[in-house]
Amino acid sequence: MSLMSVLTDIFTWWNGATVGTRFALSRGGEFVGEDEFGNRYYRLKNDPEKNAAFGPERRWVVYSGYAEASAIPTGWHGWMHHTVEAPPTAESYAAREWEKPHRSNKTGTREAYRPKGSTLSAERRRPAATGDYEAWTPGS
């Protein structure tokens, strides 16, 4: 392991497991499953004395790459937020027809949505004024 890799693990939280997360995993984390994006899901091992201090069962995810919470599939989202008790690996979860696959957030990229008339749109021209706007002037 290189020095840069060690420093990245210590000081960043957005691209994988940090040192603190790895420590928690070694002390009591139980692997639950992995989704189609490679994100790995864990929970605190079933120890009633430890779990009583935390309230509901402690659950967390280690992202495979950049940490983006919207990249958690719907089945795992329900388990992470205690909506369902059984993880998708323990039951036969099937996405409903209205559930769409994940699309990454394009804000700040060339693929970002830019409405007609935006200074960043391809047209770069605003539509002509229609004449129904009257500018405000102070004191009137």
UniProtKB/TrEMBL annotation:
This is NADH dehydrogenase. GO terms for cellular component: respiratory chain complex I. It comes from the Bacteria. One of its GO terms (biological process) is response to oxidative stress. Residues 94-114 have a biased composition (Basic and acidic residues). Residues 91-140 are annotated as: Disordered. Pfam families: NDUFA12 (PF05071).
